[in-house]
Design a protein that fits this description.
Strand content: 15-25%
Number of helices: 41
Low-confidence stretches: 449-472, 647-670, 716-730, 1134-1140, 1166-1224, 1226-1293
Number of strands: 45
Helix content: 25-40%
């Protein structure tokens, strides 16, 4: 049952009418269900939304957020007015909403009719109030919104449909909705209220109406005649009176993305900017007739849910509005981010078209990809929904409308087509002018000839082409040598079809995601095909949908070889299937499934997610029979075994001298049948049958060369497996892959050739790559090469994406063979930040699924941590997180989990703080850019405030720069008019920066009298007649006035400790001197003489900013001067603000201290245990064991925000007698010492111990190769220098 807090949070996402129905029914036993009522419907559509989206979309990614802000702000005003009249916001539909007034059920028809009349009056009355207050309301600068309102009345049906994965959908249907939609369409501009004939007949006596000339059945409401009906909050009363409603029933209507945030009461942090592929789907069903077609509607929605969920998308909205029956679907919504969301979206669209056609339902789909706002739309504490808003969403809606007009099933945008080019064939449909878009927009469609597999050798848009290869040439040459040797031996006849003992090659091309395996293979295929035009290359790759198929990796190969076999015979499909299956019906049925010739896919969709096959295709005997059938297909190709019905396929490929061979002469020694190279991409996703068929082909055929392409580290787990609904829970995909590859390379006559691609080796190779693909011979700053090398992680694909992003966003500017870094890029390099630079799409593809797999709390912690820096400390993190649910212990546990997940790494800790660093490349940037701009600014502000309190391990200058960076990011705003970003510091920010600047100057100059602020200001003359221009200097004790900046002649000195008042004023008496500052002093000095009388000085400044800056300087330095004077006269004191420890959270500090002490204690206990367990060793006196970490910075580009540390460790752990007698190697001693320690030394040493880096042992500065026995060793130092220049020094005593 719902608690009070849950009632407030959860019920806001469900209409009051639905909540009331659930409360009365207790539970929905079986879908579909229908709820009947008679009431009033209002359809309100925001006018000016198209202009709003067109204007704000020019602002880039922030435009999507501003669209949501504008809609939310206007919707809040609408909802507030509607709620007062008792209206229930039933659905939000982008820039529109559907409102239903809950009826009161009376005992007789007359009372019901009168009650409905009152409700109708309330509804129209609230609409008049809305128009009087909200017409032409300014939401953002120069952007005004209005609303068009339409009304209908009558019998309404609320239907409950769906149910797949427990996800239900509710939908209002009936004639009143049709009336309301048509009424709104008759409104010619914002501010108008149009009602249907039925509504007019009900309330014509209470309002002034104007009949529309265009249609006699619709009327415009002008004003109220009689007194207003008393308002009542009917919808809110329903929710307030409810008790004991089942929580699970409500949860079925709430998106999965929202539930974790609702549970921790942090709903506002669910909003994100995400790259989404949106589907707008128009369904060809009439939802207005729900009575007679309820079962059909249920079937349609069920099929829609299954097609979407099979491809792991999200059904965001189902509604009936002015566009008809419409669905909004998102691919990439949390928690279902994938590397191939655009491909999944198109596959789902194709599946929808096919499956809906089977149940006589036509659909039209528009697809668009881009950054959109995802989050809650509505009012806080009231009615709201999870929505997706942005330019890409509007574009998908326009493409859907175009698809209806052009009678095309699927139309898509250019971005979607480009991102799917390597898996699907798309072609330009036409250039069109769309509403809300300036200029012609390219619209694409999916080619019908090729459905899924795409084989091409042309120059790729990604930048890879036939120019050549840069990274790992030795590996690729080895690869090419194996292929050429195979082809040469085949040409020379050295490969016999009957010699089963002949050695066979199997090539396995491995590498991480983005290293360029597929593109390298394309280039090599091009070279092979150019030099050997007769060779047959069969290629297969798997998309996300094909993973569910049996024999997924070999399906496309079987299809291609089956078509060739059909071409070599005169059999029809069924005859050839019967021939290769030897009449076995089960094998024939499985082959039909592999060839997509039967209705298996339909059965899978109909029974999803509980599909169970009637046979086990992984049974050894069944796989053997399938393997025999596939072998027959290849034998037909090689003409080793031909049925009676045969014809020549490769006559066109014979040599010129063989043209006279008769077509009936089929002896194998006269026919040149080309060898086959089979390229199998995405090998990591292959199932057991695919690996078995690979092994069978290798065993049976000498003239077939298999090349497998696989990742070496990333496994994308299907979301169903995450939910515990794995199709094969006893065998993970990784185990299938390992066993499959092992079964192939263990064949007695197979030579495995593993080619591992490791990307770009060094900066020289990187320079060659940039020169080859971008024409960069030089960069304006050599450091850019170093930064690009580190940020791209040596992956060529990531490097090319990164450079393209920098060029597209004008961070890099190319002139001939030279590339210049923009001023903005240089500034970001100075701040050592990449947060503002748009990250390459490939990084989102890699990191997106990882981020979505995190728990809600861990994700929020990472978002806050990413703003602090690449390296962040736990005290600052705890200071800025606003979540009361996260205490000190939960914070430590969450960070421990993130370390175990390899998202962050522990660096080091001290007695009061602990430091972590992001590990995965661009993970921090992905987290940051997924946040809304409002969220980013709020966290930057919190970090800036924390930096003033919590001690930071930075140099003063760098600390000031970091503070300035965070305040600038917190207070920047975008101008809608100019589309430029502006920064205007608040008083708080200015005060923070000035104080930090003064502290830095005083620290550098050791608190001596140095100028802290100087410049020209205006001073009112002593007689208050005129203004004088004076050069003013403020040091740590005085404010000194000079005649000019030569500072040769003083005109007055004001001791800061004697200033009694500092009052900034705005003086309007003189237009030229408006910004003034009044200083009251008790004593002051003029020409070396002390003036004992009190005096008020008046100064003026040219701008308000200048006045504010001087005021802050004076206030702080005055306080500092008074403190210094007190210390000088009465002795030094320790003020609470100077107690550094109090800047830390006390409870968290206690936890850290206990953990730090526990690390030392565990070492001591282990050392004592080892001594006591050795009975043969005499008791010795061991020195006390101590551990002390001292930090000093060293330069390293791996840490954008702070240089990594040199950790010097001094400890005494081995007694003198043990040193003499112990033969244990030094490395082993260190392993034993650091066992179970939380110290960063254990991490650095033990995790890198396998690397071939050198170790230096030293005694008093002299190098040694090992510790000598029988000799005392004092001050022995071991330095271990890893590849990344972090240095660990050990000093034994």
């Amino acid at each position: 049952m719902l608690t009070k807090n849950e009632n407030m949070s959860l019920l806001g996402f469900v209409p009051a009418l639905v909540v009331q129905y659930l409360a009365n029914q207790k539970q929905i036993s079986q879908l579909p269900e229908k709820q009947n009522l008679r009431s009033v419907v209002m359809f309100a559509d925001i006018s000016g939304f198209t202009n709003l989206t067109e204007t704000l979309s020019k602002l880039g990614n922030e435009g999507a957020e501003l669209i949501a802000f504008a809609i939310n702000r206007y919707m809040e005003l609408l909802v507030s007015a509607i709620s007062k009249s008792g209206g229930d916001i039933f659905k939000f539909a982008g820039d529109a909403m559907i409102v239903v007034w809950p009826p009161s059920i009376k005992e007789n028809a007359v009372e019901n009719h009168e009650e409905l009349r009152v409700i109708c009056r309330l509804a129209v009355q609230s609409a008049l109030d809305i128009q009087s207050k909200l017409n032409n309301t300014t939401i953002l600068e120069d952007i005004k919104l209005s609303v068009k309102i339409g009304f209908g009345i009558g019998d309404i049906n609320i239907i409950y449909v769906g149910g797949v994965f427990g996800r239900s959908e509710y939908l209002a249907t009936g004639d009143p909705l049709t009336q309301a939609f048509k009424s709104e369409h008759h409104a010619t501009s914002g501010g108008q209220i149009i009602v249907s004939q039925e509504v007019f007949d009900m309330v014509s006596d209470f309002f002034v109406f104007q009949k529309l000339q265009t249609d006699s059945n619709f009327y415009m409401v002008l004003k109220l005649i009689n007194n207003k009906v008393q308002l009542k909050a009917g919808a809110q009363l329903i929710k307030n009176r409810l008790g004991g409603i089942d929580k699970q029933q409500i949860m079925t209507f709430i998106p999965a993305a929202l539930i974790p945030y609702i549970e921790i009461e942090q709903e506002k942090w669910s909003s994100e900017l995400r790259r989404i592929t949106t589907l707008f789907i128009n369904l060809g069903i009439d939802l207005s007739d729900a009575d007679s077609r309820l079962q059909h509607i249920q079937k349609v929605i069920e099929v829609v849910q299954k097609c979407i969920y099979i491809n792991e998308g999200s059904l965001n909205k189902l509604l009936m509005d002015d566009k008809g029956s419409t669905l909004i679907v998102g691919f990439g919504l949390p928690p279902l981010k994938h590397q191939d969301d655009p491909i999944r979206a198109l596959l789902a669209a194709q599946l929808l078209v096919k499956q809906l056609s089977l149940i006589n339902c036509k659909c039209y789909i528009g697809v668009a990809t881009g950054i959109v706002f995802t989050g809650v739309v509505g009012t806080s504490g009231s009615r709201r929904e999870y929505s997706i808003l942005g330019d890409a969403v509007n574009l998908a809606a326009r493409l859907m409308s175009l698809a209806i007009t052009e009678n095309k099933s699927i139309l898509l945008c250019q971005k979607t087509a480009e991102e799917c080019e390597h898996k699907m064939d798309c072609e330009l449909f036409k250039m069109v002018q769309l509403k809300g878009k300036s200029g012609l927009i390219p619209v694409y469609q999916i080619q019908q000839k090729k459905a899924i597999l795409k084989i091409h050798y042309y120059e790729s848009k990604m930048g890879f082409n036939q120019k050549g290869l840069i990274g790992g040439k030795d590996k690729t040459q080895q690869f090419l040598h194996i292929v050429n040797t195979f082809l040469m031996m085949d040409r020379e006849g050295k490969i016999s079809l009957v010699d089963m003992d002949l050695e066979r090659d199997f090539i396995l091309l491995k590498g991480s995601y983005g290293v360029g395996k597929t593109f390298v293979m394309k280039i090599l295929e091009y070279q092979i095909k150019t030099e050997n035009p007769k060779v047959l290359i069969l290629e297969s790759s798997i998309n996300s949908f094909e993973k569910i198929f049996r024999g997924n990796g070999f399906k496309n190969i079987i299809k291609q070889i089956f078509d060739i076999a059909l071409s070599k015979t005169t059999y029809i499909q069924s005859e050839l299937l019967q021939f290769i299956s030897n009449g076995n019906q089960l094998v024939q049925k499985i082959l039909e499934e592999l060839l997509d010739l039967n209705e298996w896919l339909n059965d899978y969709v109909n029974n999803f997610p509980k599909f169970e096959s009637t046979y086990n295709i992984n049974d050894d005997q069944i796989m053997k029979l399938i393997g025999q059938a596939i072998v027959k297909l290849f034998e037909i190709y090689f003409e080793q075994q031909l049925p009676d019905k045969k014809k020549r396929l490769y006559s066109q490929m014979l040599d010129d001298e063989s043209d006279d061979i008769l077509s009936n002469d089929l002896s194998s020694d006269k026919i040149d049948v080309p060898p086959i190279i089979i390229v199998l991409d995405d090998l990591q996703y292959y199932d057991q049958l695919s690996f078995y068929l690979m092994k069978t082909i290798i065993k049976k055929f000498n003239r077939i060369l298999l090349i497998g392409i696989t990742r070496d580290q990333f496994w994308e787990i299907p979301i169903m497996s995450r939910k515990g609904i794995s199709r094969n829970p006893n065998r993970t995909q990784e185990l299938i892959y390992d066993k499959g590859v092992e079964s192939i390379i263990n064949l007695y006559n197979v030579t495995p050739n593993e080619v591992i691609m490791k990307g770009i080796k060094n900066i020289e190779e990187q320079k060659q790559l940039l020169l080859l693909y971008f024409g960069f011979e030089k960069l304006s700053d050599p450091k850019i090469h170093e930064i690009l090398h580190l940020k791209s992680c040596k992956q060529p694909l990531l490097l090319i994406h990164l450079v393209k992003t920098l060029l597209n966003n004008k961070y890099l500017r190319k002139e001939n063979d030279f590339a210049y870094a923009s001023q903005q890029l240089q500034t970001l390099f100075q701040h050592e930040e990449w947060l503002q630079i748009e990250i390459p799409q490939i990084c989102l593809q890699i990191n997106g699924p990882i981020i979505d797999s995190l728990s809600c709390v861990n994700l929020l912690l990472l978002k806050f941590a990413c703003v602090i820096g690449d390296i962040f400390d736990i005290q600052t993190l705890f200071k800025i997180i606003p979540f009361k649910q996260i205490n000190q212990n939960k914070l430590l546990m969450a960070l421990k989990q993130l370390v175990q997940q390899d998202i962050i790494e522990f660096m080091h800790d001290d007695n009061e703080n602990r430091y972590y660093r992001f590990v995965t490349p661009f993970m921090r940037e992905c987290l940051y850019q997924s946040m809304t701009y409002t969220q980013r600014r709020s966290i930057h502000s919190l970090v800036a405030e924390a930096l003033q309190i919590i001690p930071q391990p930075y140099e003063d200058y760098k600390e000031l720069k970091r503070l300035e960076y965070h305040w600038s990011m917190a207070e920047q705003r975008v101008s809608i008019k100019s589309s430029n970003t502006m920064i205007k510091f608040s008083h708080k920010a200015k005060k923070s920066l000035i104080v930090k600047q003064i502290q830095m100057i005083l620290k550098i100059e050791n608190n001596v009298k140095v100028p802290l602020k100087k410049g020209y200001i205006f001073k009112r003359s002593d007689k208050k007649v005129s203004w004088q221009f004076r050069y003013c200097v403020i040091d740590s004790e005085n404010m000194i006035l000079y005649l000019n900046d030569q500072m040769s002649e003083q005109t007055g000195t004001l001791p800061l400790k004697l200033i009694s008042s500092i009052i900034p004023i705005f003086d309007k008496s003189n237009d030229q001197q408006q910004f003034c500052l009044k200083l009251g002093v008790s004593d002051w000095i003029k020409k070396g003489k002390i003036k004992g009388n009190k005096r008020v000085f008046l100064f003026a400044f040219e701008s308000e900013d200048s006045l504010e800056e001087w005021t802050i300087f004076l206030e702080f330095v005055k306080a500092k001067s008074i403190y210094n004077d007190f210390v000088e006269n009465f002795g030094r004191i320790q003020l609470p603000i100077n107690l550094i420890n109090e800047a830390f959270d006390p409870q968290l500090t206690i936890y850290l201290q206990e953990m730090f002490k526990g690390s030392i204690k565990r070492f001591r206990q282990q050392n004592v245990t080892e001594q006591m367990s050795n009975k043969n060793r005499k008791s010795t006196h061991s020195k006390p064991q101590q551990l002390q970490i001292v930090q000093s910075p060293i330069h390293n580009y791996h840490s954008p925000n702070i240089n990594p540390k040199r950790f010097s460790v001094r400890f005494s752990a081995i007694s003198e007698q043990e040193e003499k007698s112990d033969d244990t190697p030094l490395k082993e001693k260190l392993r034993q010492f650091f066992f179970g320690s939380f110290s960063v030394l254990a991490i650095h040493l033990l995790t890198h111990i396998y690397e071939p880096n050198y170790i230096i042992l030293g005694q008093e500065g002299r190098n040694m190769r090992r510790l000598m026995k029988n000799r005392k060793h004092k001050n022995n130092t071991m330095q271990r220098i890893p590849k990344n220049p972090s240095i660990i020094e050990f000093d034994f005593q």
